[in-house]
Specification:
With 418 residues, the chain is an alpha+beta fold. The strands form five sheets. Strands 2, 3, 5, 6 and 15 form a five-stranded antiparallel sheet that branches. The protein has a five-stranded mixed sheet with strand order 8-13-14-11-12.
Length: 418
């Protein structure tokens, strides 16, 4: 907290800066004010402060990662005023964004809060919601590393360094032994080769999501059109060229991962005249099954990832590859973006169950670390951990933020040294 609120803003050196934050006594506050008078207050432009003139921010407040880029057509010309639908997937987290390109073809995705490697797919539409071929070029992030402000110095060999080396070696050996905690040792086993069963899906499912129901054309060769296949799904009603799932509105039709519409209303629209859903897109209504591999249905939570357009369900149609297909898939570029660093779990041995590895002496220096402890509505939280075999004192350090962003720290030593 002292670094966040004071030390990072000072030009001079202050000894024992933590003492200026130890309490709220008048003497401590006066000492803090004297430090500010000699090191910090003097850099303020007081006429601007009195007139409430706020200086320009060097860095904008960031609520998440910002992804910027530029959209082009197949002739590498900028694509202005185009709507980009972006689907992102990181592990089991799915998200959708809508971005609009400006006159220079540039777009921005704000608050891109995903962890680790994230797969991103871009789909483009014109003002009539017609799918467009699009090429995307993302801006490269070039962060400058901070300047090192400390001078390196060689350590003198003394008893403390030798003790540290000895304890460090003991800790490494202990960790190696404890890493086998929870591992079951098997007797000798003979591994035989087993042929992996080939998936029926020539085309991978959109975003790797399992469907609520799937029908393959090879199992229903008598069906000649896609609408005929849709009649085989339970809960799907086909009336002419109007399709509904569980008597809902117009579902979202997705062809090879690209949403398509009938040109009159957005996919996932409501009811047409006389209480009927809008007609299915002509591209779907007239499509034969000879070029179709399978049809999938998404309902409820699985359809929710497509946003409001999937509120009435999603019908996904996958065409065959390399078998005379008449449909030319729209170019939809995909990228792998590095999101926030994945939070790593701090390992702490559990001695409640006796195992052979626990016979090794415990020399841990850090007994417990948790970066995301949240208190309840009363401000209380409970943590549990096992002590080491050598610790006579335990130093407890707590750093936190209030819901309003106010920082706080607490430092206490428990136990008595010999």
């Amino acid at each position: 907290m002292s670094h966040l609120l004071l030390d990072s803003e000072l030009k001079g050196k202050v000894s024992n800066i933590g003492l200026l934050f130890k309490d709220k006594n008048i003497k401590t506050i006066q000492q803090l004010d004297l430090v500010m008078l000699t090191h910090s207050w003097r850099k303020y432009n007081w006429p601007e402060v009195w007139n409430d003139v706020k200086p320009k921010k060097e860095f904008e407040f960031a609520e998440g990662i910002t992804v910027n880029g530029k959209a082009f057509n197949t002739k590498n010309k900028i694509m202005p005023n185009a709507t980009l639908n972006i689907v992102a997937k990181s592990v089991e987290i799915l998200g959708m964004f809508i971005a609009q390109t400006d006159l220079d073809g540039r777009f921005t995705i704000p608050d891109f809060n995903f962890n680790g490697k994230t797969n991103v797919v871009f789909n483009a539409y014109n003002y009539k919601d017609k799918p467009l071929n699009v090429k995307v070029r993302l801006d490269q992030k070039r962060a400058k590393p901070p300047i090192v402000l400390f001078n390196s110095s060689s350590l003198k060999q003394d008893n403390e360094i030798e003790d540290y080396r000895a304890n460090s070696l003991a800790r490494r050996r202990m960790r190696t032994r404890l890493e086998t905690d929870g591992v079951t040792q098997l007797d000798e086993a003979v591994v035989t080769e087993k042929k992996k069963k080939k998936s029926r899906n020539q085309t991978p499912s959109a975003l790797g999501m399992d469907a609520d129901a799937t029908i393959y054309t090879e199992d229903h060769i008598a069906m000649q059109t896609v609408l005929d296949l849709l009649r085989l799904f339970a809960g799907v009603t086909v009336n002419g060229n109007r399709v509904s799932i569980r008597n809902g509105g117009t579902p979202l039709f997705v062809l090879d991962g690209i949403p398509v519409s009938n040109g009159n209303s957005r996919p996932g629209g409501g009811f047409g005249s006389f209480g009927n859903p809008d007609p299915a897109p002509s591209q779907i209504a007239t499509m034969d099954t000879y070029t179709v591999e399978r049809v999938e249905i998404l309902k409820g939570p699985r359809a929710a990832m497509w946003g409001s357009r999937g509120s009435n369900g999603v019908i996904l149609i996958y065409t065959k590859r390399g078998e005379g297909q008449t449909y030319n898939p729209i170019i939809s570029p995909s990228f792998t973006i590095s999101g926030h660093a994945v939070e790593k779990e701090f390992y702490s041995p559990k001695y409640d169950v006796k195992i052979d590895a626990h016979d090794t002496a415990d020399y841990r220096a850090t007994l417990y670390w948790n970066p995301s402890v949240t208190t309840d509505k009363e401000g209380n939280a409970t943590i549990e951990f096992f002590n080491s075999d050598t610790a006579k004192e335990i130093q407890l350090s707590i750093e936190g933020l209030s819901p309003d962003g106010i920082p706080g720290t607490y430092l206490e030593t428990i136990g008595e040294s010999e």
